[in-house]
Amino acid sequence: MPQTEGIQNTTLFIDSVSIKDNWQTLNLKSMPAATAAVVKSDAYGLGANKIIPLLITVGCNTFFVATIEEALNARYLTKQAEVYVVFGNNTLEEAEVCLENNITPVLNHLGQIEIWRKALKINNEARLETKKSKAWLHFDTGMTRLGIPKQELEKIRNNPTIVNNLNISGIMSHLACSDIVNHSTNYEQLTHFNHLRLWMNTQFDTYLNWSLANSSGIFLGKEYHFDITRPGASIYGINPQLDQKNIMKDVVRLQAKILQVQRVDTNQTVGYGGTYTVKKPGRIATIGLGYADGYFRAASGSAQVYIRDFRIPVVGRISMDLITLDITDVPEKDSHVGSIVDVIGPNYSVDKLAQDSGTIGYEILTSLGKRYKRIWL
């Protein structure tokens, strides 16, 4: 781990080797299915501009993003890889952007299907043969979020021409409870997806790619993998199985310098609202990050940090820019102004901070602030 002396007071280290190793682990687990990478939300807040080229070096050639802006950025970074945009076909203009930039839109409802049909018609009438024109259909099998719902599926069953001549190359759905291995919803969605697959394959002459498994879905078994898996959070170190030890490598380490140390006495209060009362004479340290940097206020009084192997409780309310720590039990030679504190690190993972904040690791990663100095290892 590089030394942080002489640089900003908070530093986010991002381990590029671990990112590559995590994707390769998921790829091996997915075989013989192909493995994509979900890089939406700026690659879960860590930096798509760095991570997309990084993953290409280990063989990833398929990327899923959320918005048309993210899709265009991914296409700028790679001319050859497949780029799928999950909700980027909401207007005719967005559909035309997809055509012009070889971006595959995922169609989530009949309205988007109609927009795509109009864009293809304009493209064909203009004889723009150089434009690519494939799309995927997304069916809702139990998430009730995005995807063609049951009512619209029935309309398609009654009139299959609705999906004719759309240049459909793949079908996907999304698992709602895959991080809980034995959840009954997993099997229900798989069954629904398989029934859909049997029917849809009778409607298309060309081969369709089928995709169901997200990060956690990869660990449910081969029957969930189909043609391509779509891991996201686990690439960045998040545990894909809530009840199992995390086999993914940690990707981020967040460190901060102690800005100030104060000696305190019994019954002295700390922070806004005086919510923490000192129980014995000791020392309180302050570090320079807070909820403006994605360290949630909800973690007040429950989170912890580390100096080496010393566990240190976060005390008092977390404020916008500052966190206070009870360092009474840490030797002063290790806990003075300028000492390095592991806010996220080997002893305290993203998932553990998320648990103590009443949230999930996804939210922690995507909220990590822009004020941190970022160092890629």
Describe the structure.
- With 377 residues, this protein is α/β, with parallel strands linked by helices.
- The chain has 2 domains: 32-234, Alpha-Beta Barrel (TIM Barrel), CATH 3.20.20.10; 252-376, Lyase, Ornithine Decarboxylase, Chain A, domain 1 (Beta Barrel), CATH 2.40.37.10.
- It is 28% helix and 21% strand.
- The strands form 4 sheets. Strands 1, 11, 14, 15, 16, 17, 18 and 19 form an 8-stranded mixed sheet that branches. Strands 3-4-5-6-7-8-9 form a 7-stranded parallel sheet.
- Helix 8 links the parallel strand 8 and strand 9 (209-211).
- The longest helix is centred in the middle third of the chain and has 17 residues, at 184-200.
- Residues 1-7 have low confidence and may be disordered.
